[in-house]
């Protein structure tokens, strides 16, 4: 088991890995959700998968495993309905957003009851900024985030910190607090694009 200090370091590395993977995929992509699994546990439990991911027997840290998201719900709604099995140490989400200047707040408030019009207004605003956010959290309370603006699309311009997206971090942390009895996991694809068996979240009944 990783110590809290080691988990914090591993989380930052995992977020950087997910951010680089998202950058390779490019912009205008759907949201993604990753399980963060202790690499040493993954190597022991899934040696074939570990080999496909190029993990050495003495590897440490956290390995991101891409999860398939339902097509009929947005990321936030999905996070409200799931919890992770015990072998998952944390999770990370990737989502793109449009950021508007404070001068647009009044116009957006006037469109509060018309989401379609608000979305169109944001998409057409001349001062809009497109942003890709990565937010991650662990069971032991560590969080880390990374931002990349489309207007500054290079690794040196990535902004990182522990609490850049409080609302999304809260949703991620909530998926890690409920105990779940999860059956054998379905297929998922890892950060390198392979199709693998990996821990998957259980959808909670409502």
TrEMBL record:
Residues 176-206 are annotated as: Disordered. InterPro entries: PPA1309-like. This is Uncharacterized protein.
């Amino acid at each position: 088991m990783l110590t809290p200090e080691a988990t914090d370091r591993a989380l930052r590395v995992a977020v950087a890995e997910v951010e680089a993977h998202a950058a390779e995929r490019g912009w205008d992509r759907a949201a993604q959700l990753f399980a963060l699994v202790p690499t040493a546990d993954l190597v022991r439990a899934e040696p074939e998968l570990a080999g496909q991911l190029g993990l050495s027997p003495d590897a440490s840290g956290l390995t991101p495993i891409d999860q398939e998201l339902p097509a009929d719900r947005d990321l936030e709604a999905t996070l409200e309905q799931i919890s992770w099995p015990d072998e998952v140490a944390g999770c990370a989400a990737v989502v793109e957003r449009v950021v508007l200047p404070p001068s647009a707040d009044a116009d957006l408030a006037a469109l509060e009851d018309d989401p379609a019009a608000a979305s169109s207004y944001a998409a057409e605003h001349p001062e809009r900024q497109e942003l890709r956010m990565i937010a991650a959290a662990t069971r032991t309370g560590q969080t880390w985030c990374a931002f990349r603006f489309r207007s500054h699309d290079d690794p040196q311009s990535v902004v990182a910190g522990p609490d850049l997206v409080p609302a999304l971090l809260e949703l991620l942390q909530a998926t890690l607090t409920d105990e779940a009895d999860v059956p054998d996991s379905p297929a998922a694809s890892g950060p390198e694009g392979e199709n693998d068996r990996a821990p998957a979240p259980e959808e909670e009944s409502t």
